[in-house]
User: What shape does this take?
Amino acid sequence: MRSTLFFFILLALPVASASSAPRTLTEQDKATHVLNRLAFGPRPGDVARVQSMGIRQYIEQQLHPEQINDSAVDNRLSQLPSIRMKTNELMARYPEPQQVAQRAGIQKPKADDKNPQANRSQLQSYMMQNGLERPQQLLQELQSQKIIRAVYSERQLQEVMTDFWFNHFNVYWNKGQDKWFTTDYEMNAIRPNAMGKFKDLLMATAKSPAMLFYLDNHLSTVPNLALPLQAAARARLANPGAPLPPNIAAEEANQAKNRKRDGINENYGRELMELHTLGVDGGYTQKDVQEVARALTGWTIDRPRQDAHFVFRLMMHDRGEKVVLGNKIRAGGGIEDGEKVIDILAHHPSTARFISTKLVRYFVSDNPPDSLVDKVAATFMKTDGDIREMLRTIFYSDEFMSPDAYGQKTKSAFEYVVSSIRAMNGETNGSPRMAQLLTKMGQPLYQFVAPTGFPDRADYWLTDGTLVERINFAVNLTANKLPDTRIQLNDFPDSKTAALYLGSPEFQKR
Amino acid sequence: MPRVPVSRRFFLKSAGVAAASFGVVPPFLLRTAYAQNPAASKNRPILIAIFQRGAADGISMVVPFGDPHYASLRPQIALPSPLRGGGETTLDLDGYFGLHPALSSLKPIYDAGHLAMVQAVGSPDNTRSHFDAQDYMESGAPGNKSVSDGWLNRYMQTDPRPKGSAPFRAIAMSTNMPRSLLGPAPALAMTKIQDFDVRGNQGRAPGNSNSEIYSAFESMWHNETFDAMKMLKDANPTRFQPENGAIYPSQPFSQSLLQIAQIIKADVGLEVAFADLSGWDTHANQGSVAGQLSNRLREFGDGIAALYRDLGDRMRNVVIVTMTEFGRSIKQNGSGGTDHGHASALFMAGGPVKGGKVYGKWPGLGPNQLFEGRDLALTTDFRDVFAEILTKHMQTADVAKVFPGYTPRQSLGIL
Assistant: This one.
């Protein structure tokens, strides 16, 4: 009885079903497929809508997000003020509470304090009175905007690509100053470049405070750079040419040893090649890593605790000659050394292949067919890394629109949650509870620690633990038990049937 | 049903006397008893890893009161020497090192010979970023950011089992899968045992109004997850109450340890458990015998001591190891606290541990002995300790795979 009911549901609803994979795709299958891959799954009525407008027309529309009116989603986002603020405003309005306490002269509770709560509430009311909120609020608003956009934006492909590129150029929100830098990173480095030229996207990430901080390039300097003592710098500024007062000179000499910055930091240089461009087998050496890091010395963050923006500091820059992947960069250069490196990497055949492989893996199959990777890499080389053109090559390929690809990708936790809400015509404000559930399903948004980003592999997403969480999500969502989220049963006879639909093996796929 | 070892009766008879004199279960009795018990040898070894996030002050945990420089470097926050007498002091371990008095519940385990410390241990990478240092310690690959899985996950990869054969091999008591357990080998992260279940309503277990939806999902999936769920439900770990008079503190860390003990007792194939505790970043008002750090240490020590006592004879094949990303600056700072430093200390407890000893070469606190003139120098790479645990306790042959690009330099002989 149960299984009869279940198969009935499967027939009636657009599910990309692996077990019932068709030998040829009907028009309805094709519409379902593009909605599962270019978008975060169909809402009720979407499949018919795409069929009637034509699949080609839908793809072209999604490839041009700038021509899609998205005012409905803008209204929904108006409840999240921080996502429109500049970094300086974020740092002023969402400060670390300890720093507020220090500035306001609120004592930390002492160990023998009879009433440690009093200090805490004093700080809380001080922050409230001054219109200040905790940094954690920034994370919650980022997570909410991501959920709201994915559920409601008409620019679905742009959101899919924003998710893809953020993960490709991953940063970790919790790492120090990245709490205040990540908002700008997604809004200004990633999303606007998600469908443009790869080189522009790469450059935007290279110059973003979020990436400079996350992979430590902001610390990378020419070896043995002795940082001037602040007092000494002030004295020199006040009396140019005059000898330093002896006490300051002595202090400077004394501290020179400890204040020395210890030369290049290779973290960014390595990940830039291994993860962002060439790929681990892309044909670079440890020597190249060092040379790239040298070329990028001086790419750092100006006023990191105020407005925090990219700056090139010649003082920190290693001006010697570098050889990167066989290209000589002459001695005496400045910011253009790093720009040359980005240029070399953004046009390298290994990059074309690596990026194409990742895109095909995401849009087509966990085992990307070589035939298609070759075509996409050729598009990359021909179009100066035009992401839109690469996507077009993928979407119009036989490999993409094939029974072998249909319903074969396992949804990430985010894709699962968003496609569930869409399938149920849900109303949500992207509440923090949703982000907590995603964490339990293995996808803490903006909080994946490693620069690799979340793996794009079925076995990462579906494990014993995460499957249980997914099923519980389906049960609770359909019973309207989740806070700030309401769904409509529409064609489902009851919430249990709807839960079985969302919790089915078929619905875990896209 | 949990298995009852042959020698349990012998143990129970002796335990009353010994527990009275030691205050804890006397593991040496167990070692003797189980050495003669062939059934015990097939028991799988278990590792419990505990991360102190935020960089715990190693020289406040294992206090070098014998070092001539110690007291003067920390006028307000040094722990009083046990030689001084009067009031609360450091608990003497070996005439040179002492235990922070807030860790007093660990002292009997040390005295019984099943708690050891390693001093001046840590990561050779000299980053002072919490993020990077934790990342490196958990990936097991300091300085190499490209390693995306964790050392405990790689340990499990060295001994792969068919998928689904051991769903409870590795469990982290946390919401996020910790970096140490990230990777292709399956592991579970949960904050409560009850979470690993299909619930009709939030918090309500199946078996009543929701059994219908549970069995519908079960017939739909036919997979290991449901077998695992059933297995856990049958084993019903939460029925195990703390034994041997163990009392777990009420804070989340200790409650995590309690649940790890329950899962061990339920005998569902646990090999690796992970728990963490934050709040060690004591930049200001660190305190001495009392204060912020002292409160944290009490929670830490009482939790571990409760786990040790609760597990009783099961500790014979359990090793508990603690870790922290780096130590703290040796001189106290202007706010009565300490800043980010270099080497720290770790604890190891369990039946297989040759305890009652502080391991590791002591580098000294003199001005020329400190790392970069301010921090405790490192004399033991944390990977040497982890590798010893993996080879001698977990019986891994392939340690090179767990710590890429690293050959352990020394075996401290703790196991």
